[in-house]
Q: What sequence folds into this?
């Protein structure tokens, strides 16, 4: 049951828990919330703190709601903290607990040791084991890593912390990972992503697997960022997505002691700059590499590991489907072209044409890698297709004619250049979907080196 207890002074009031389970909530820091739930065992409970301001909280106990004793002190490092409690009062004693915010307890430093759960030896980001096909042309030429920003273990570790840090948004509620979730192939499962104030983005969040390889080197669906280093800073400053300024971000990160350590390890100086933030984030994103799929195993063994259905789908992908024309090589990315795939006409979204102002660029969009495509639904720049089955149906008979439709989607001469119709059977369509699912890489979705490194308590 809930009771109405108001603590004094109000600035330190938070949450109280009695041994018999009643609790009370009083005034909290702005944006904070506390919750408590009974534990599975007797005399146990769990306390959850939501605190965008990342304050220090103190667990206290009292036999009489008057005299309080500090039991444990917690620091919130990235907006949330959870603690499981076990409490055993003396026989006949009704013992109360509360979680307290008090500025007097704010001296706990945010060090790499207590803020981040990093391995004692840095994870390997700089030298991933790549299949032989990734080490020769054409994939070798698709690598967009600049000579001035090669991936290092220390800088990618810094980039990992930045990628998951909600301090990158104005109200400290959104991180890069909010729209690029590891379990979803670094996409977010929504047609449009939710920004720091609840607004929606104009396009679907693209999966990040193998972003390192794209011959045109540009980023975003409309390629408005010339490099990944340019791209990673734009969502931070976008008024819908994260709403931050680079000057404000530098100031905010400079106040965190653990960033001094991470920047020193990565770049030899504790000084935080927007250029170094950009370089570290880009290095982490480039390190998100998928090369451990059923397809990769098959490519090395003549696809003996494939089912008959998967092999049928692979053949359709490479022949009658002509999918490889825009998703070529073992990396499943295009060559030098940006494409129009006939989603609509007239154009609702101009894509690349909205950036260049050229009619010939209208409806052209970047083609991302198909690796982990099973995990990144919904599909297309506007998230219009909920499933891979819907995508296959579209390419089978739904491509819309328009002046900029890419040649692989048109019928070849000598016939009229109308959109191609595959006219696949239901069995063939299912086989094509089965093949696309062989591109799923669960090592990317489960590898700790790509996961949230912050310490959230239990």
A:
């Amino acid at each position: 049951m809930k009771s109405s207890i108001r603590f004094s002074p109000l600035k330190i009031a938070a949450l109280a828990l009695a041994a018999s389970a009643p609790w009370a909530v009083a005034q909290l820091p702005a944006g904070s919330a506390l919750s408590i739930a009974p534990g599975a065992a007797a005399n146990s409970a769990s306390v959850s703190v939501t605190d965008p301001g990342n304050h220090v909280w103190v667990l206290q106990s009292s036999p009489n709601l008057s005299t309080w004793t500090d039991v444990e002190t917690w620091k919130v490092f990235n907006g949330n903290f959870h603690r499981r409690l076990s409490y055993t009062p003396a026989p006949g004693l009704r013992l109360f607990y509360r979680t307290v915010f008090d500025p007097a307890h704010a001296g706990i430093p945010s060090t790499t040791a207590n803020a981040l759960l990093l391995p004692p030896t840095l994870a390997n980001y700089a030298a991933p084991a790549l299949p032989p096909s990734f080490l020769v042309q054409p994939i070798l030429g698709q690598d967009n890593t600049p000579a001035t920003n090669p991936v290092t273990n220390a800088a990618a570790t810094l980039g990992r912390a930045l990628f998951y840090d909600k301090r990158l948004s104005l109200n400290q509620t959104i991180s890069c990972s909010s729209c690029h979730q590891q379990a979803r192939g670094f996409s977010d499962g929504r047609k449009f992503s939710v920004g720091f104030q609840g607004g929606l983005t104009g396009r679907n969040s693209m999966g990040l697997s193998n972003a390192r390889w794209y011959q045109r080197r540009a980023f975003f669906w409309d390629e408005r960022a010339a490099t990944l280093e340019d791209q990673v800073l734009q969502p931070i400053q976008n008024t819908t997505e994260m709403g931050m300024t680079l000057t404000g971000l530098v100031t905010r990160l400079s106040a965190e002691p653990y960033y001094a350590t991470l920047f020193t390890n990565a770049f030899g100086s504790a000084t935080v700059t927007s250029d170094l933030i950009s370089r570290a984030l880009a290095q982490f994103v480039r390190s998100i590499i998928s090369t451990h799929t059923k397809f990769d195993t098959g490519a090395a063994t003549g696809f003996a590991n494939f089912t008959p259905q998967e092999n049928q789908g692979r053949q359709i992908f490479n022949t009658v489907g002509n999918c490889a024309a825009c998703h070529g090589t073992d990396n499943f990315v295009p060559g030098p072209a940006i494409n129009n795939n006939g989603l609509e006409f007239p154009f609702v979204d101009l894509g690349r044409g909205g950036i260049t102002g050229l009619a010939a660029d209208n409806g052209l969009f970047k083609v991302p890698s198909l690796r982990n495509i099973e995990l990144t639904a919904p599909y297309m720049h506007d998230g219009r297709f909920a499933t891979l089955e819907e995508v296959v149906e579209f390419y089978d008979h739904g491509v819309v004619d328009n002046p900029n439709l890419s040649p692989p989607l048109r019928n070849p001469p000598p016939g009229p250049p109308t959109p191609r119709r595959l006219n696949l059977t239901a069995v063939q369509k299912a086989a094509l979907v089965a093949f696309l699912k062989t591109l799923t890489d669960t090592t990317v979705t489960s590898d700790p080196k790509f996961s949230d490194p912050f310490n959230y308590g239990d």
